[in-house]
Automatic annotation (TrEMBL):
GO terms for molecular function: calcium ion binding; hormone binding. The keyword Transmembrane applies. Pfam families: EGF_CA, Ldl_recept_a, Ldl_recept_b. SUPFAM superfamilies: Growth factor receptor domain, LDL receptor-like module, YWTD domain. The chain crosses the membrane at residues 701-722. Residues 771-785 have a biased composition (Polar residues). It comes from the Eukaryota. This is EGF-like domain-containing protein. Keywords: Disulfide bond, EGF-like domain, Endocytosis, Glycoprotein, Membrane, Receptor, Repeat, Signal, Transmembrane, Transmembrane helix. Residues 829-838 have a biased composition (Pro residues).
C-alpha cells in the first residue's frame, strides 16, 4: 500500500487521501513529483516523464532544460545522445533527429544499403519489417499505404489485412487487433460453453452428445471415443459399470467412463484412472517447487523465500531489497523496489545493450554495441552512490549484443552481431574463445544455466528466427524453437522453477515460455505487451522493457493479471536484469576446482571441461588441462571503487578510467557536488574528512571513543587505589631504562634563570649543528653547555656514557675506532670506545659530567631546581 504500485487492480491501495502521510521525505538532491514520488534531481526537466505523471516536465517548472555536454548531441526533443551515434542509421534520439542532415553514402544518394529499407527520417530497418503493423521507423513511413501495396504478403505464413498490412497468420483470431483495423479478428469461430446435451472434447470444443462412442472421431483429439463401452449389457447401475471413477449411461446399451479432476483414463484399461502429474506441465501456477500428490499437487517455496499464506503460491524473498538494472543510452540505471528509488547506477560508454549480474560478488556486466566493449562495475548498497565502470578490454569483441554471466565457474558469455559468433572469456575478460561461429545470422539474446550446463541464445534472423541450445562449451548444439517467431529479442531463465526459459518477441508483441529441453511451449501473455526488447523473471513476477513506449513493466509470471507500469520516460532502453542475492543458487559447485584448468573451465551437463583461449591448444601429456597460452599478470581486480559524487553528480574519467572530477547538476557545486546553491553542505562523500554518510560511519567513530574513554577511566581508578595503599606508582620508572651507575636528575619548576650560551665548537670547525630530540626521550642526559665550558676548544670531548652509536669506516666519517681523527663530519660526535678496549688515548680528555654530585662544582644548582635520585 502507498508504494506507487497498483496492487489492488483498481488503484485503491494508492489513494492519495490515504497515502498522503505515508510517503517518505525526499532528500535535498531529489525532486518531489506531484504524485509524491521522489526522483533524482538530475531527472527533472530532461524531457522524460520520470515521475509518471509528467510533473517533472511541466512548462511552469522547466524554464531552463538540462543542457547536453560537449561530448553529446542535443536531439530535437531536447534529449542527449553521444556524438558517436550520429548518422549511423540507428535511431538514438526518440525523434530520430540524430540521423538528420547526414551525408548519403550509398549510390543514388541513399542513406541505407539496398538490403535495408530507408525510412523517410533516414533510419535503416530490415526489409521484412515493412508493413507489419508496427512503426519501426518512428515516423510510420514503413507502414505507409504506398509502401504496403508493393509488399508481397506470402500465404499461408502471413495474413493480408484489409489495410494492406501483413501479419503472421497464426495471430489471426487470437482476440488481439494485430492489423490495426481489426480485420484479422473477423469471421472467427466463437467459442461457447457446451450445453447439457453436448459433449465437451478435451480441446474445449463441443459436439452433439449422440455422437459420443459411435466409433467415429468427432472430436479432433479423439476424446469422444475414449472410455466407451458398448454392447456389454451393463449399465452404470451395475457396479458403476466397472468404472473406477465416473460412469455415464448412453443410448444403445452403452456407457461412458470418465475420471475425476487430477486423473486421466489409463491407456491400458479405459475403465481405470491414473494420476496426472500436474507438476510436469504448465498450469500448476507454482512459482517455485511443485510436489505431485495423488489426484493433486502442492506448491513449496525454496530456502530464503516464504509465502505469507503458507500455501507456496506467493514465494517472496525474505530480503525484499530487489534492484532492477537496465541499460539506456550511455547509462545503467536502477530501480529499487523496496524504496521505490529510481537512480543512475553507472554512466559509461555510448550505446549500452546486453546486461547481466554476478550476485555473489555484487558485479554488473554490460555490453556497448557502439564501442565494441564489455564493461563491469560494482553494485553499491547505497542507491545514492554511483559505481565506476571498468573496461574489460576483451580482444575480438566487435559488436557485442547479449551478455550472460556464469556465476559458478566465473565466466562471461556474449553474442556478437558483426562477427556472428558466440564467445566466452573468464570474468576478468581474459582468455577469450569463440564457441559458435557457423549458421548464425543475428545472434542476439543469450542466457546460461550453470546448474544444468546449458546455454541458450536467440538468432533474430528476420527470415528464419530461432531459439537454440548447446552445452556451455559449445558442443551438442540443437534448435528448440523455429516456428511462430518474429524477432526474439530477450531471453531469461527462471532458476527457481526448474530452469524454465522465458523469451519476449518485439515484433509479435508477446512473451512465451518453455521447459529447458524446449517442450511444453506456452504463450504467457500477449496482453498490453508492446515492443518488448528484454525480459527477466524473479519470485512470482516477470519484468520487461518496452523500447518504443520507454517503459519498465511487470506482470505475474503466469500471465494471470494486468501488467503494471513501474517506470516511464525511458529513452530507448535495451537490456534488463533483476539483481538479488537469492536470484541464483550460488552454492552450485562447478567441478572446476578438481580439474585445475590452466585457463578456461567450461561447465557441461554433469561436469566441466577445460578449454584454451582463441588460437591456442592443449599442451601434450597434460590430460587436456594445460594450454600453451600466456597468463596475464597481474590478474585484473574486480572494480571496488564507488563514485563519490553526490546529489546526482556524475564521475568524469580519463582514458584510463581514472576518476578526475565530478560533473555537478544545476544547483550544486564543490569537488563532490556537496554544496547546494544556498551554500549549505548537504552531505559528505565517503572517505572525506568529516564525512558521516551512514549509521555505520557513526558507529565506527563513536564506539572506539567510548571504549577508549572507559579504558582511561579504569586506568585512573587503578592508579588512585594503588596510591591510596601507599604504592609508589611512577610512570617514568616504567617507561625509562636508566643505567644504575649513572645518577639521574629530575627538574621542578622555579624562577626564570638566564644562562649564557657560549660558542659551541667542534674540532675547530665553527658552530655545531643542533639535532632535534624526541619528546619521549628520558632526561638522564649530560648538559653539553656545561661539558664545553671545561674543555679547551682544541680538544675533543668524549662523554663517559654517550649514545649507542655503531662504529663506521665510512670515509666521510673517519675511523674513530682506530684512534684516527674525525674529518669531514662537522658537528658529529664520534662513537665511543668499546667497554673491553683500553682507556682513552692521550689525545682525548674525559670531561667531568654536568652536575655530577661526586665532584666539587661552583656552578651547582643553588636555587634548588634539581632533585637528585634514581628513577
Amino acid at each position: 500500500m502507498c508504494d506507487f504500485d497498483d496492487d489492488c487492480g483498481d488503484n485503491s491501495d494508492e489513494d492519495i487521501t490515504k497515502c498522503r502521510d505515508s510517503y517518505r521525505k525526499c532528500s535535498e538532491s531529489e525532486f518531489r513529483c506531484a504524485n509524491n514520488k521522489c526522483i533524482q534531481g538530475r531527472f527533472k526537466c530532461d524531457h522524460d516523464d520520470d515521475c509518471g505523471d509528467a510533473s517533472d516536465e511541466k512548462d511552469s517548472l522547466c524554464k531552463d532544460f538540462q543542457k547536453c555536454t560537449t561530448e553529446q548531441f542535443t536531439c530535437a526533443s531536447g534529449h542527449c545522445t553521444s556524438l558517436l551515434n550520429l548518422c549511423d542509421g540507428h535511431r538514438d534520439c526518440q525523434d530520430a533527429s540524430d540521423e538528420r542532415n547526414c551525408t548519403a553514402w550509398y549510390p543514388g544518394r541513399k542513406y541505407c544499403p539496398a538490403t535495408r529499407f530507408e525510412c523517410n527520417n533516414h533510419i535503416c530497418i530490415p526489409l521484412a519489417w515493412r508493413c507489419d503493423a508496427q512503426n519501426d521507423c518512428g515516423d510510420d513511413s514503413d507502414e505507409a499505404p504506398s509502401v504496403c501495396k508493393q509488399v508481397n504478403c506470402t500465404v499461408p505464413e502471413k495474413f493480408l489485412c484489409n489495410n494492406f498490412k501483413c501479419v503472421s497468420s497464426w495471430r489471426r483470431c487470437d482476440g488481439i487487433d494485430n492489423c490495426g483495423d481489426k480485420s484479422d479478428e473477423e469471421n472467427c469461430e466463437i467459442k461457447k460453453e457446451c450445453s447439457a446435451d453436448e459433449f465437451k472434447c478435451a480441446d474445449g470444443t463441443c459436439i452433439d452428445g449422440g455422437k459420443v462412442c459411435d466409433n467415429s472421431h468427432d472430436c479432433k483429439d479423439f476424446s469422444d471415443e475414449r472410455g466407451c463401452h458398448k454392447g456389454s449389457g451393463l449399465k452404470c447401475d451395475d457396479n458403476n459399470g466397472g468404472c473406477e471413477h465416473n460412469c455415464t449411461d448412453l443410448s444403445q446399451d452403452s456407457y461412458y467412463c470418465s475420471c475425476a479432476p487430477g486423473f486421466r483414463q489409463s491407456s491400458i484399461n479405459r475403465k481405470e484412472c491414473e494420476d496426472i502429474n500436474e507438476c510436469a506441465t504448465w498450469g500448476n501456477n507454482c512459482p517455485q517447487d511443485c510436489l505431485n500428490v495423488k489426484g493433486s499437487f502442492k506448491c513449496r517455496c525454496h530456502k530464503g523465500f516464504s509465502d505469507p499464506h503458507n500455501r507456496g503460491q506467493e514465494c517472496k524473498s525474505d530480503d525484499s531489497s530487489i534492484i532492477i538494472l537496465f541499460t539506456m543510452g550511455d547509462e545503467v540505471r536502477q530501480y529499487r523496489s523496496k524504496s521505490k528509488d529510481y537512480t543512475t547506477e553507472v554512466i559509461s560508454g555510448v550505446r549500452s545493450a546486453g546486461i547481466d549480474i554476478d550476485a555473489d560478488r555484487r558485479l554488473v556486466y554490460w555490453s556497448d554495441t557502439n564501442l565494441g566493449k564489455i564493461f563491469r562495475a560494482s553494485v553499491p548498497k547505497d542507491d545514492k552512490k554511483k559505481a565506476v565502470a571498468q573496461d574489460l578490454e576483451i580482444v575480438g569483441a566487435k559488436h557485442p549484443e547479449g551478455l550472460s554471466v556464469d556465476w559458478a565457474a566465473k565466466n562471461i558469455y556474449w553474442t556478437d552481431y558483426e562477427s556472428r559468433t558466440i564467445s566466452v572469456a573468464n570474468a576478468d575478460g581474459y582468455y577469450q574463445r569463440t564457441l559458435i561461429s557457423t549458421d548464425l545470422r543475428y545472434p542476439l539474446a543469450i542466457a546460461v544455466h550453470p546448474g544444468l550446463g546449458y546455454m541458450y541464445w536467440t538468432d533474430a534472423n528476420v527470415f528464419r528466427p530461432r531459439i537454440e541450445r548447446a552445452w556451455m562449451n559449445g558442443d551438442e548444439r540443437s534448435v528448440l524453437v523455429s516456428t511462430k517467431l518474429g524477432f526474439p529479442s530477450g531471453l531469461a531463465i527462471d532458476f527457481h522453477m526448474g530452469g524454465r526459459v522465458y523469451w519476449c518477441d518485439s515484433k509479435e508483441n508477446l512473451i512465451e515460455s518453455m521447459k529447458p529441453d524446449g517442450s511444453d511451449r506456452v504463450l504467457v501473455t500477449a496482453k498490453s505487451v508492446f515492443n518488448p526488447v528484454s525480459v527477466d523473471v524473479f519470485e512470482g513476477s516477470m519484468y520487461w522493457l518496452s523500447e518504443s513506449l520507454g517503459q519498465l513493466a511487470s506482470m505475474d509470471k503466469f500471465g494471470r493479471e494486468n501488467n503494471k507500469t513501474i517506470q516511464t520516460g525511458l529513452q530507448l532502453p535495451k537490456g534488463l536484469k533483476v539483481f538479488h542475492i537469492n536470484r541464483y543458487n550460488i552454492s552450485i559447485k562447478s567441478g572446476c576446482k578438481k580439474l585445475a584448468c590452466s585457463h578456461l573451465c567450461l561447465i557441461i551437463p554433469g561436469g566441466a571441461r577445460c578449454a584454451c583461449p582463441e588460437g591456442t591448444t592443449f599442451l601434450p601429456d597434460t590430460n587436456n588441462t594445460s594450454c600453451d597460452a600466456a597468463h596475464p599478470k597481474p590478474v585484473r581486480p574486480p572494480p571496488g571503487d564507488v563514485c563519490k559524487c553526490l546529489n546526482g553528480g556524475v564521475c568524469s574519467s580519463d582514458e584510463n578510467d581514472v576518476i578526475t572530477y565530478c560533473k555537478c547538476p544545476t544547483g550544486f557545486d564543490g569537488d563532490f557536488c556537496e554544496v547546494s546553491n544556498n551554500g549549505t553542505v548537504t552531505q559528505n562523500p565517503e572517505g572525506i574528512a568529516g564525512g558521516i554518510t551512514s549509521v555505520e560511519d557513526h558507529v565506527a567513530i563513536i564506539v572506539p571513543i567510548v571504549v577508549g574513554g572507559i579504558a582511561v577511566l579504569i586506568l585512573v581508578l587503578v592508579v588512585f587505589i594503588l596510591r591510596k595503599r601507599g604504592v609508589d606508582f611512577n610512570f617514568k620508572k616504567l617507561i625509562t631504562k636508566s643505567n644504575p651507575n649513572s645518577p639521574t636528575v629530575s627538574f621542578k619548576e622555579g624562577g626564570k634563570i638566564r644562562l649564557g650560551v657560549p660558542e659551541m665548537t667542534f674540532d675547530g670547525q665553527g658552530h655545531a649543528e643542533m639535532q632535534p630530540t624526541s619528546g619521549d626521550s628520558p632526561t638522564n642526559f649530560s648538559n653539553p653547555i656545561y661539558d664545553n665550558l671545561h674543555a679547551p676548544q682544541s680538544d675533543v670531548i668524549l662523554p663517559i656514557h654517550g649514545p649507542n652509536y655503531e662504529s663506521s669506516t665510512d670515509p666521510e666519517r673517519g675511523d674513530a675506532s682506530n684512534g684516527g681523527s674525525v674529518k669531514g663530519s662537522k658537528g658529529r660526535i664520534p662513537p665511543p670506545q668499546s667497554p673491553t678496549s683500553p682507556g682513552p688515548s692521550k689525545e682525548f680528555r674525559i670531561a667531568p659530567r654536568a652536575l655530577d654530585p661526586n665532584m666539587d662544582d661552583d656552578e651547582r644548582d643553588n636555587t634548588g631546581l634539581v632533585k637528585f635520585g634514581e628513577l
